[in-house]
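Case study 2.
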Amino acid sequence: MQHLRTISDIPDPNVLRMIMARASLLKRLRRQGHVPKTLEGRVLAMVFGQPSTRTRLSFESGISMLGGSAVTMQTRDLQLKYGETLRDTARVMGRYADVLLLRAKDHEHVETFAQYAGIPVINGMTAIDHPCQVLTDLFTVFERRENAFDLQWTWIGPMTSTAMGYAGLSAMANINMNFALPQEDENAKSKLERFIAQGAPIKMFTDATAAVEDADIVITDQWPQDSYDEEVRSAFRVSSSLLQGAHDDYLFLHKLPASRGEEVTEEVLEGRHSVVYEQAGNRLCVQQAIIEWLLDVRLA
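Prediction:
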């Protein structure tokens, strides 16, 4: 059974391209007012242990537009606090839905759901990966750059779950990735070294300016609160001066929410290279394509 627990669950670049192509078609059909009802009668059950804006709305709206429905719960709605195990919860929920999504800090919860639910399981973000976001980012670049796999991608900042997903994408699709990490982030370096050992074309930097040299795609994310002092944050803040070494037509990505003036300046976030709002909007068609792929829906 196919799941999307991490980006590594995508078997090969050809499947990546198929998901990108389907998302593109679904986006175009929506604009034309001819969205196919490929998920009619299908139910998506979602459990959120952490807040969500884009993931929840895009999945709920996306499956509804394709004729299906979504049931959304918070972790506090479950019977876990009364002693029911996670595996029993997964077994029961798998009988009420066709596909499950779970957002949880502990990635093992996603693995447990995948093991026991009996239906496809989607990682809606855990501590080690955010595959739906990474696929959306890749699609956003694909729409503007036909050679997305051949570009130079650069991540700036701490090793978040999205960054981990990018490392997995690099290993699977052979995408050149630079990671500019705060100097003391030894834990992040050890994680990246595991992907490098798998053959991923990843380079690590402690100098953000060097990392963005000749970059085509620049990505950052919110920093964990109170995790680094202002001197470190300033050195890794994405600003116009930092990006002077990037290619003239570089694209800037941020999954949102953004802390303006912290990890990125207002000028960059609202600038001509920024595609962050298009990126957020693309969550819709990409999530639709993900569900269709997991359910092996015959494309209309």
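Residues 55 and 202 are 28 Å apart (CA to CA).
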